[in-house]
Here is the input.
Amino acid sequence: MKYLVPFLLFFTTSVKGQKIHYKSILVDTHNDAPTACIEKKVSFDQDLTGINHADLTRMKTGGLDYQLFSIWCDGEKINPYAWAMREMDTMDAVAARNPDKMVVAKDWKTIKKTLKQGKIVAQYGVEGGHMIEDKIERLDTFYNRGVRYMTLTWNNSPSWASSHTFEKTPVTGTQQKGLNAFGLQIVERMNQLGMMVDVSHVGEATFWDVIKNSKKPIIASHSNAYSICPVSRNLNDDQIKAIGVNGGVIFLNFFSGFIDSNFSKKDMAFRKAHTAEVDSLLATGIQKEYAFTLLSDKYKTESESIKPTIEQLMQHFDHIVQLIGVNHVGIGSDFDGINSAPQGLSTVLDYRNFTKALIARGYSNKDIKKVLGGNFLRVYRINNPN
Ligand SMILES: [Zn+2]
Here is the structure.
């Protein structure tokens, strides 16, 4: 009998958790599967268990309804625009092969229909303004292909916006801090198109120029709170408050290093222990960050032991909610673009554990639905009325 009460409590929470999780529209604003699939030479509609954090079938099993796939390359690629097109071609082909499972939806009517049919809505987020190669008309081309946000910078900086990396350690040259005149035109065109302005990765000067000039609510597609984990990729309290006033949304990043400030030290030791292997991976021509992802996959036990917990991720959630309320937070996992996620949030099958953490905090079903997808849909609709 003494075990019955805790068991019943666990059972009820878990059943309730399942129900609200699957009843909600679950949106993730950041997944790097296009790059991961190309680099690993696998297909998103294969079973990628043990290979990627996500694949088409596991996404559905995990309760995901709406995914913005990241279109990304680092600043060293020679043809970023051609690469972006290739990544979208790859994902469009996945959708074309699986019309019963995923639809690249470009208007509200199609989005609604796809969700109603229980299929996954796919759209794209271009990660890094360098991918338009200084040609503003490419925003229109991207938009027509289903790109619904652009992260103004990745860790590198296009000529017209400075990244967090540049602003932290400015290098001499022509690059200015913040947005230049062309950068302002780009934000204006994005607002007109309905391509949401994403401030994850940008430097503070760029951030404040965006806040001053964007006529639509903005997003941080995959960022956490600086005051909980002080890394320059996270948002400080003034930035968080400004996003609240702007009506925007911050989507929480699952990367261990943006959750726990002790992670990078532990991770560095892990990487150092395998230097020779990283060097030989790089010699095959793959991108640098990707070599470390492969390394973590290979040495699972070692990489698991240095991960933060879900509760540590929820400290970021609680902090943002405390500052600007529950209407301004969502999920931007960064799955398949990160080499370490918290314990209990290892793959797309684990989104339920995030929902359980919300239930444990006593949030109402209404609030849980907002966090899982409603907040995204609100900001999306203001940017894209059609
Ligand atoms: Zn990123």
The chain has two domains: 4-256+310-383, 261-307. The chain has a mean pLDDT of 93. The domain at 4-256+310-383 is CATH 3.20.20.140 (TIM Barrel).
